[in-house]
Specification:
The structure is a homotetramer of 135-residue chains. Chain A has 4 helices and 5 strands; from the N terminus they run βααββββαα. With 135 residues, chain A is of the alpha+beta class. A 5-stranded antiparallel β-sheet of chain A has the order 1-3-4-5-2. The radius of gyration of chain A is 16 Å and the shape is elongated. Chains in contact: A-B, A-C, A-D, B-C, B-D, C-D. At the B-C interface, α1 and β2 of B face α1 and β2 of C.
């Protein structure tokens, strides 16, 4: 299963001539969602089943700036999964040169439709096992 | 009652060094919502009462580019209101020099919580009268 | 040569549960740039050669709302090209059902690095001919 | 000197009904820039003088979700300033209830127009002193 690859969009750049730092946080989301979908868990399907995975925290460290015309590659890894929490790490590199652009993390919990915390281990044990193994 | 005034944000610029054209569409929304709120109709309150005013169409003509550091002034006007539809026009100028940046329009209808078209004239006659007069 | 296809991103939705209307303007840009790149004209390469194609105007008509989980297909066509101007039209449909989401247009001119209007017919005749034929 | 106060915009919400987490990173930027401007350092003026303050890293911890219709208050503090680096912390609260929404940090360096690191202490000693005192 592969990394998430996407082109830089013009509207993602800022007047400094590089991608605005806030957009990497959005790319993390894109890559995280693609990562789960590849393993059989489409986020819109999870929501339909009453499971949401909101973001509790994010961090990013910017090493070099992606430019318009670049294609970026985003590697996603599960850092940790428990019955009630999930965390990911991200590595954004240039798809052609391999140069490191940004690293990051995101922390999440599992909630139901009423935003009440729930145990993914009970509610969807296969999800829990899938991502335990992928660690 | 006044125009809507706001600063250009850094993240709204693109690598051309000016505000990305898509952001004016967002500014129209900000200004339109402020315009209605000033007249007693806060959009979140309307939504709570089961009235939404989705966008059916937009247009913008770009005359000159707003830059980071600029403050823009947005004049909102009601073009037309009927029982079921509403349209606005916008004029974005530089707040210091008065230079014209962008003109635009947006077309809307009134729908209820189930996205079914509804008559604002029946559902909220004071809204209808307020904006008829303001025309 | 094909249409531009992309998934709806979570961060592109709004509290109405559908894609915020301003994002279609950004999708037009993505699709327009992909359209030109497919025909041999990558926009970053054009910029390096001193040609920019800024947006003079946009319009969009919203027919139905794209949702998170959807994949959209965007058909781009050249409406008109002259020595100094270029205009496109767009049709956004659901990639699975074909349902029409949005139609739109954008108008552009050609400028050099100093934002001075220039003739693409003189500066890059192959570009002009390519897009004349594609009309 | 005061906190930075702003309304939540409709286009900043997502289908979960709350502000998309990436937008807090943009709000940090807005608030940081307003903080510096209030103390006499407008960021566009700094850029004109050949000083840029790019973001090296950001973090955010989300405590509760801001909603459309809310007004948020953002308190900015300087965590640390050296000759070559600067870091801020942020606290976003609801302006009416005081409820904590998000905390965060950002790390920056000083660079010149060629993106080469520079000493703010040498290049603009008054800036350095101003923000040392404000710590």
């Amino acid at each position: 299963m592969g990394d998430y690859i996407r082109k830089v969009q013009y509207y993602e750049t800022d007047k400094m001539g590089i991608v605005h730092h806030s957009n990497y946080i959005r790319w993390f989301e894109e890559a995280r969602i693609a990562y789960m979908a590849e393993r059989g868990y489409e986020y819109n399907k999870l929501e339909e089943k009453g499971i949401m995975i909101p973001v509790l925290g994010v961090s990013a460290v910017y090493k070099s700036g992606a430019k318009y015309g670049d294609t970026v590659r985003i590697r996603v890894q599960i850092n940790k999964i428990t019955a009630v929490k999930l965390s990911f790490s991200y590595e954004v590199t240039d798809n052609d040169t391999g140069e490191l652009r940004t690293t990051g993390t995101s922390d999440h919990c599992f909630v139901d439709n009423d935003f009440k915390p729930c145990s993914i281990k009970k509610k969807m044990p296969d999800f829990y096992e899938e991502f335990c193994e992928n660690k």
